[in-house]
Amino acid sequence: MPRAIKHKVAENITKEVAKELLVEFKKVNSSEDLNNFFKKFMTAGEKDLIFRRLAIIKFISQGKKYKEIKKILDVSDNTISNSKDIMAGRGYGQNPNRKRKYSHLNIKRKPKFKPGLKYKGAGNIIEIFDPLFGQ
What we know:
Layout: H1 11-26, H2 31-41, H3 44-61, H4 66-73, H5 77-87, H6 125-129
Helix pairs in contact: 3-5
């Protein structure tokens, strides 16, 4: 499920900014213009995220399997599945019928230290170096 936004922008401001964004986007006529658009409004990570999603959508529409897409783009099954949700018109990560995968934690943990247990090694440093002093 997508992260909730803590502080939403007021609707009137959102509409105003969207108009300005659309004006800027209409100025894009070449790949150089598009690159400048992204530099102006997004970080490199955000730009990469958008292009990765678009590539996933392209590969899905071409009929590529999850395994192929994962190998080409180095993305997870969840990322591919969430992108399929966009294609289906549900929005990113909005498939109510998705079977969720949860990993099972079969980790063997060390036992916790129990007070009262004595150290079974050498009693002191002398015993380590000279067995004549040991008991």
